[in-house]
Amino acid sequence: MLGKGQGSEVFMRKQIWFACLVCGGAVVPGFLIGGLVVILYKLTTIAALGSDLDFHFLHMLFGIETPGKILGWVLYSAFPAFIRGWAAGSIAALLTHYAYKGPRLNLAAFVTGGVYTGIAAMSELLCYVMYGPDLKMVLIVIEAVGLWVGLRSVVDSFSTAGSSSAV
What we know:
This protein has helices at residues 4-49, 56-62, 66-99, 105-131, 135-160. By secondary structure, the protein is mostly helical.
């Protein structure tokens, strides 16, 4: 026979797993929407700066092309990867907040971030085995950091707003 506390604990665990499943599943449409945001970002950046970044002032200042290449990589690869991860994390946390009305939204976001970090670590390993050290590996890490920032920023905004979704 179940006591008062035992039945509610079992029910609460089911809700937490539901929140983890919703948050983990919501990452996929988040990445799709983040991809659309990245396409818009790249189109506006190319329209403003051009597709071939030619930083003559950096070449004249440093005497080498490396600073211009690094800035081009940051503008066209690293920042879009961060934005895609941030959008995925934010959308996943928002959808979870609306689908799950429990007090442990932060736990669902933490589990989702941990699962995605594990997937990113496996991607890193496979990328290293197949291609060796490459800048793609850095982009995977930047995207994972963006996902964590997106998840935590939305969860923290709900907890500071006085919502009952985070403890």
